[in-house]
């Protein structure tokens, strides 16, 4: 594209939570957006909501499906094909059980989505970034990628894998001048716990009860900050928690 063109941001998991809030702040600042997820109704709503202010293209694919990932990204129209910023955000926890009680299907989902999905999307986006000598990848990790908590076993392992991939990608892409960094949130009130507890709204709500959790917008703002630093500044690894949270298991409910 031309020099004056606004950069394009590719966001996975844009239909909800952190990804949606990230889409909204980049839209506000006029960035082109490629917004991804599986829920077509939400993708359509986002296109309508954000498309009046900036150019928006939506892609419906499951990050677990490597063929679908490749073909969705290959299908991008010319105006959206030069991705400057990739936000690897799609992901969830599925279940919260001891290792002896955990479900193999839940384990597959977390490893396939949070780890392999991030790899498939990165693999499809990188050739153009390398050819264009321009790119910034933000990996959404978690405090669960920095410490393990009881019954967090496989989710924590998947986010520790994201932490390792963030470091590895930074090393390998350094020669191409591509910035790579992670944003690792603590407790953020999104649909995360609804998904983790399979639609049990009451149980999901109790995760964020009695203290002020982070809002998705808090993380969207931080991602925007990270991306808008001058080119020589790469925020490599950032951990952000609610003030009430000191670790995965220590939350001050008296604040
Ligand atoms: P949400 O459940 O609100 O959003 C998850 C997003 O991921 C949705 O847009 C969903 O879209 C997408 N997604 C899930 N599975 C797939 C899939 N198989 N293929 C494509 N897209 C998928 O949760 P959050 O916003 O909280 O989560 C976003 C990221 O932040 C995740 O990586 C999560 O691990 C991480 N995180 C969350 C924290 C929290 O406390 N909430 C804290 C730390 C990290 P759709 O269903 O339409 O496909
Ligand atoms: C989400 C944060 O503590 O719910 O990654 O696992 S936590």
Structure description:
- Belongs to the short-chain dehydrogenases/reductases (SDR) family.
- The structure is a single chain.
- This protein has 255 residues and is of the alpha/beta class.
- Helix content is 42%, strand content 16%.
- The strands form 2 sheets. A 7-stranded parallel beta sheet has the order 3-2-1-4-5-6-7, with helices on both faces. A two-stranded antiparallel sheet has the order 8-9.
- The longest helix has 29 residues.
- It is globular.
- 41% of the residues are buried.
- The structure holds NADPH dihydro-nicotinamide-adenine-dinucleotide phosphate and 2-hydroxyethylsulfonic acid (8X3).
- The site of NADPH dihydro-nicotinamide-adenine-dinucleotide phosphate has 29 residues, from helix 1 and helix 6.
CATH architecture: 3-Layer(aba) Sandwich
Q: Average pLDDT, to the nearest integer? A: 97
- Output the CATH topology: Rossmann fold
How far is it from the N-terminal to the C-terminal residue, by CA? 50 Å
- Count of all domains: 1
Largest sheet, in brief, is: 7 strands, parallel
- The low-confidence runs, each spanning 5 or more residues with pLDDT under 50, are none
Biggest sheet: strand arrangement: 3-2-1-4-5-6-7
Q: Please state the CA-atom Rg, rounded to the nearest Å.
A: 18 Å
What is the string of SSEs from the N terminus onward? EHEHEHEHEHEHHHEEE
Distinct bound molecules: NADPH dihydro-nicotinamide-adenine-dinucleotide phosphate, 2-hydroxyethylsulfonic acid
């Amino acid at each position: 594209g031309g020099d004056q063109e606004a950069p394009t941001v590719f966001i996975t998991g844009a239909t909800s939570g952190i990804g949606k809030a990230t889409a909204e702040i980049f839209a506000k600042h006029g960035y082109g957006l490629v917004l991804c997820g599986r829920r077509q109704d939400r993708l359509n709503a986002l296109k309508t909501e954000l498309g009046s202010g900036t150019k928006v293209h939506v892609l419906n694919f499951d990050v677990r499906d490597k063929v679908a990932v490749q073909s969705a990204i290959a299908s991008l129209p010319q105006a959206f094909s030069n991705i400057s910023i990739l936000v690897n955000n799609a992901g969830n926890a599925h279940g919260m059980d001891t290792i002896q009680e955990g479900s193999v299907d839940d384990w597959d989902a977390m490893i396939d989505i949070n780890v392999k999905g991030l790899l498939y999307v990165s693999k499809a986006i990188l050739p153009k970034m390398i050819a264009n000598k321009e790119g910034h990848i933000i990996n959404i990790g978690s405090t669960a990628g920095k410490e393990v908590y009881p019954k967090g076993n496989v989710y924590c392992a998947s986010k520790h894998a994201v932490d390792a991939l963030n470091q590895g990608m930074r090393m390998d892409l350094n020669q191409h001048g591509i910035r790579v960094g992670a944003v690792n949130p603590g407790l953020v009130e999104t649909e995360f716990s609804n998904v983790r507890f399979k639609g049990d709204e009451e149980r999901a709500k109790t995760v964020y009860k009695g203290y002020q959790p982070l809002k998705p917008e808090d993380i969207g703002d931080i991602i925007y900050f990270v991306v808008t630093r001058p080119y020589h500044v790469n925020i490599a690894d950032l951990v952000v928690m609610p003030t009430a949270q000191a670790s995965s298991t220590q939350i001050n409910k008296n604040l």
